[in-house]
Specification:
It is a single chain. By secondary structure, the chain is an all-alpha fold. It has one domain. The protein has four helices and no strands. Helix 1 runs parallel beside helix 3 and helix 2 packs antiparallel against helix 3.
Length: 72
């Protein structure tokens, strides 16, 4: 069960096959497998939300604008 939790914490969608294989061998692990898949999805969704941070180009434009203000 601890292994399944670690897959949930550090795994990705490629590990779904491993989780399904474990459930086939022991159906009692299905609860842990579902929880691990949910953790992977939650982490994936939170990563996509973080991608809205300013890009390097936007930050460079802001720096150049500040430099222009200071030089004038």
């Amino acid at each position: 069960m601890a292994v399944i939790a670690q897959i949930g914490n550090f795994g990705n969608e490629l590990n779904y096959g491993l989780l399904d294989e474990m459930v086939e061998k022991d159906p009692v692990l299905s609860i842990n497998s579902r929880r691990a898949k949910a953790k992977i999805q939650k982490r994936k969704n939170s990563i996509s939300k973080k991608s809205k941070t300013p890009t390097v180009e936007q930050l460079n434009k802001k720096i150049n604008a500040i430099k222009n203000i200071l030089l004038d």
